[in-house]
Amino acid sequence: MSLESSSNNIGIGxxxxxxxxxxxxxxxxxxxxxxxARRSEYWYFTLFSSLVSIVFTLVDMALGMSSMxxxxxxxxxxxxxxxxxxxxxxxxxxxxxVGRSGWWYxxxxxxIGAFVFLYWLFKDSEVGxxxxxxxxxxx
Length: 139
Prior knowledge:
The protein has helices at residues 19-28, 39-62, 74-97, 113-122; strands at residues 4-7, 13-16. With 139 residues, the protein is mostly helical. The chain has one domain (18-122).
């Protein structure tokens, strides 16, 4: 991973990663449900995992292991299993970053709660530290 240090508006060094590096970082923290994840970490992970999933689905379809009806092929199914825990972990860390427990994920099952949950995913980090750690942005 390539790490570069830059300064934010208050002069504290902040870790800057590329989108692919954020994706790999989530695999490095495969089942780490503690700490905080910046918006960029969550959304880059979501973007790249979706792109990889599309590629595996196309490969499965090209090899005749999947169909347009939505059945999983071998590669897409294995990738879905491999990505499940890191996806859950980065989502919990993202909730920690906005000051919420990971259990707040269950709010999506209430209907309107899905919109509240989406708001939290787009919300900026809580300034300073919270009970899950220091702000990953250095604020």
